Every structure is written in structure tokens, then in C-alpha cells.
Amino acid sequence: MEFVDSNKINKKEKKYYQAKLESMLSELLQGSGETVQEMKSTNQEFPDPTDRANYESERNTTLRIRDRERKLIKKIRSAMVRLEESTYNICEECGDYIRKQRLDARPVTTLCINCKEIEEQKEKTQQI
Ligand SMILES: [Zn+2]
Questions:
Q1: Phi and psi at residue 90, in whole multiples of 5°?
Q2: What is the CATH number of the domain that holds 63?
Q3: How many structural domains does the chain have?
Q4: pLDDT digits (tens, 9 = 90+) for 99-111
Q5: pLDDT tens sequence across 74-98
Q6: Domain span at 66
Q7: % pLDDT > 70, the chain
Q8: How far away, in angstroms, is 97 Cα from ligand 1 center?
Q9: Separation of 18 CA from ligand 1 center, angstroms?
Q10: C-alpha of residue 63 to centroid of ligand 1, in Å
């Protein structure tokens, strides 16, 4: 059990992840603000139906991106809460520690690599 302590997030690391999550969040919030602006300022008159179709598909893409952004913002916020509660690097599925290497690459993850693989496996079989 001597490795358990090294999996715990120390103060310095906590600050590091906090900063990382905060910068992700502010980037996202800035980005989505721009998208809203764009959508509002677009003129809705389309003499050419192709333009209209293009606009619609662009709009759908924008909405999809916005939806993804919203979900990510939620994930980041809950990651911040978990960081405060010191459950940040604990896998939601199995309660094991999530490797710091993995958190570094995916700061909003709630699953350890094993559980993530199982989940992805499930998603694949559901798609078929
Ligand atoms: Zn797990």
C-alpha cells in the first residue's frame, strides 16, 4: 500500500489542475459568447435557397458545437468541485485512483483508464 499516498493530489498539484481547469473554462466561455454574437448578427434573409440550406447546416453545426461546449463546461465545473472535495482523481466507477498522467491529458475525466475502456467497449457494441 505504499503507493497510495503518491496517488493523492498534493497542494501544488491541486493548484496546477485548478489553473488548468480554469483556463479551459474561460476559453470555452469566451468562445461560446462569440458564437451567440455571430448567430444574432446573421441576417436571416436568403434570396437563394442554397444559401438558406448552407445557413441551416452551419447553424446546426454551431448548435452541436454549443451543445458539446455546454456539456464540457458542466464537466469542468464538476471537476473543480471534485478537486475541492479531494475526490478529483478517484474513479467514479471503481473508486480506484485515476493516474495523474491521464488527468493531465484529460483533466475532466471521471473514470480510470480501465473503466473508460470498458465504457468505450459498451458504446461500441451498442452502436452495432
Ligand atoms: Zn475505474
A1: -110, 130
A2: 1.20.120.910
A3: 1
A4: 999 999 999 999 9
A5: 999 999 999 999 999 999 999 999 9
A6: 4-127
A7: 84
A8: 7
A9: 22
A10: 32
